[in-house]
Amino acid sequence: MDIKSMKNYLYWLYCQFELITCSYLMEPWEKLLFYTFNITMLVMVFYTAYIFVPVHVSTAFQFFLHLFGNQRENTVSVLK
Amino acid sequence: QKNGISNGTLYKKKFVEHFEQAPMYVAVLTFLGFGVGTVFGYLRDFMRAWGLEKRNIAAEREQQKDFVPLYQDFENFYTRNLYMRIRDNWNRPICSVPGPQFDLMERVTDDYNWTFRFTGRIIKNVINMGSYNYLGFAETDVNALKTVTIELQKYGTGICSTRQEMGTLDKHVELEKLVAKFLGVEDAMVFGMGFATNSMNIPALVGKGCLILSDELNHTSLVLGARLSGATIRIFKHNNMQSLEKLLRDAIIYGQPRSRRAWRKIIILVEGIYSMEGSIVRLPEIVSLKKKYKAYLYLDEAHSIGAVGATGRGVVEYFGMSPDDVDVLMGTFTKSFGAAGGYIAGKKDLVDFLRTHSHSAVYATSMCPPVAEQIIRAMKCLMGLDGTTQGLQRVRQLGKNTRYFRRRLHEMGFIIYGNDDSPVVPLLLYMPGKIGAFARRMLEKNIGVVVVGFPATPITESRARFCVSAAHTREMLDTVLNALDELGDFLHLKYSRYSKSSHPELYEETRLELED
């Protein structure tokens, strides 16, 4: 039952996408072209995110750690 | 915005109009849809120009390629690429009387709406929510059409002449007297075509050196008549009295553009009910403005005659005013009387002037006798002169249907434009993809609707326009409302932020449980 309502909901979302972007009005080959373009763009965005986001996040994390980490070490040495 | 009345004491009852704006994301998505459509339009045009696709539309001949291009403007681009895709929702041929239900000829297309062919099947009893049949006089009942049949056999159908030559029949004289009596004015004149009444008579009434103040959303017939007359035209914002007053003051203070002389005549062109918005004109305020600034008023009651007012006499009666306040009363018989043609009514001097000077009287064929008889019988029914109360019942039924339909649509959460008392109900669709989907799915559910998009409406505000009729029964309206409810959920059309709960009966059930 849950799967059926989930499938209906996804179909409804797909219909909304079709209506909003006017792909409901397009002929089949135009739809193919449009969806290929969209899916290619999405794949490229996700691929770029997959490659670059971990590197960016770990660099940023190291930067902030370095900033606050140095302070902690300095205070510890003063206390000693 | 609801009640923008500047002088509340002029109105005898509440004047409530709705023009709700949709949330911002709707406008953004509408432009996105048009953008995608335009990109694909350019792609298809490119393919047609380079011969990769067959050309189905009008194009110039080879010898004319060096001339000024004929089909490059935006309107032709829009027609070729966007209108053609959803063209099957317009110009649908029907094959029965356009009463509350009609029969439709089924047509299919093999090449995406470039050509159509009829399958031969007839779709029966489609509920009619698009015809201007406000009082339900478009009927084929033999008893109702008895007098029309007699007149048809007596006079035939052709007039073969204009009013000034041999085309004035005793039927026209009888009809004109009846129209004058119905409206409460001195005299009236009838014409064969409603559009031509406006476009041919405004040039007779105003000319060069006169000023026309016309509403933003006036019908094409008024605009054409105004342009043909040669007078100066100034536009005021739709139903906005501050804008009109400012224009009137400027006109009187500054006069004509270069010579600064006084204007020969200032005339205000308004309509009773605007058919694309469903709004009613603010007549009491306009009449007080016209009296203060000594201007003339031309009221086009095409949609409001027969449809509003306690006894169906139009917006003048709706606001409780006297017909002497309006200088030129114009209306058509196409909408509420189930016939064709138009009239102009007012003082006797005005109508006598039009009988000699109107282009329509001199050159256009007059109304044919069976149609005149249909109007006579409809008007007699409305006034109660045929001995029954059927006319009054029809007007009351229309009022009830209008209020019920509008109330339910508001409760469901759709955005509806217009006054609460107008039988024209525009439901906003906004996105171009939804226009086609809405009309096709309503036809699958056996309901015929009229959808309107650009260029008849602003580009972001495409709509479906319902015309409620006195001939619709409660069951028909409920069928339509249930279908709209379902379709509104499926297409996500319920944008209103002010709706009450869409299923009030659920709340009542829980109240019962709490009482236990």
Automatic annotation (TrEMBL), chain A:
One cellular component term from this protein's GO annotations in UniProt: endoplasmic reticulum membrane
Superkingdom of the source species: Eukaryota
Pathway(s) it belongs to: Lipid metabolism; sphingolipid metabolism; Sphingolipid metabolism
Pfam family, one: SPT_ssu-like
Compartment(s) of residence: Endoplasmic reticulum membrane
Membrane association type: Multi-pass membrane protein
Residue stretches spanning the membrane: 32-53
GO MF entry, a single one: serine C-palmitoyltransferase activity
Main location: endoplasmic reticulum
Keywords: Endoplasmic reticulum, Lipid metabolism, Membrane, Sphingolipid metabolism, Transmembrane, Transmembrane helix
One GO BP annotation of this record: endoplasmic reticulum organization
Function: Component of the serine palmitoyltransferase multisubunit enzyme (SPT) that catalyzes the initial and rate-limiting step in sphingolipid biosynthesis by condensing L-serine and activated acyl-CoA (most commonly palmitoyl-CoA) to form long-chain bases. The SPT complex is composed of SPTLC1, SPTLC2 or SPTLC3 and SPTSSA or SPTSSB. Within this complex, the heterodimer consisting of SPTLC1 and SPTLC2/SPTLC3 forms the catalytic core. Within the SPT complex, SPTSSB stimulates the catalytic activity and plays a role in substrate specificity.
Subunit details: Component of the serine palmitoyltransferase (SPT) complex, which is composed of SPTLC1, SPTLC2 or SPTLC3 and SPTSSA or SPTSSB. The heterodimer consisting of SPTLC1 and SPTLC2/SPTLC3 forms the catalytic core of the enzyme, while SPTSSA or SPTSSB subunits determine substrate specificity. SPT also interacts with ORMDL proteins, especially ORMDL3, which negatively regulate SPT activity in the presence of ceramides.
Family affiliation: Belongs to the SPTSS family. SPTSSB subfamily.
PANTHER family cross-referenced by the UniProt entry: SERINE PALMITOYLTRANSFERASE SMALL SUBUNIT B (PTHR28612)
Protein name: Serine palmitoyltransferase small subunit B
Biological source species: Charadrius vociferus
Automatic annotation (TrEMBL), chain B:
GO molecular function: pyridoxal phosphate binding; serine C-palmitoyltransferase activity
Translocase as UniProt keyword: no
Co-factor(s): pyridoxal 5'-phosphate
Subcellular location: Endoplasmic reticulum membrane
Segments traversing the membrane: 22-43
Domain Aminotransferase class I/classII large, chain residue ranges per copy: 124-484
Its membrane topology: Single-pass membrane protein
Pathway of action: Lipid metabolism; sphingolipid metabolism; Sphingolipid metabolism
Assigned keywords, A-Z: Acyltransferase, Endoplasmic reticulum, Lipid metabolism, Membrane, Pyridoxal phosphate, Sphingolipid metabolism, Transferase, Transmembrane, Transmembrane helix
Enzyme Commission number, as recorded: 2.3.1.50
Domain of life of the native organism: Eukaryota
Name of the top EC class for this enzyme: transferase
GO BP annotations listed: ceramide biosynthetic process; sphingosine biosynthetic process
GO terms under cellular component: endoplasmic reticulum membrane; serine palmitoyltransferase complex
Coiled coil feature spans: none
Keyword Lipid metabolism: yes
PANTHER family reported for this sequence: CLASS II AMINOTRANSFERASE/8-AMINO-7-OXONONANOATE SYNTHASE, SERINE PALMITOYLTRANSFERASE 3
Family from the record: Belongs to the class-II pyridoxal-phosphate-dependent aminotransferase family.
This protein's name: serine C-palmitoyltransferase
Organism whose genome encodes this protein: Charadrius vociferus
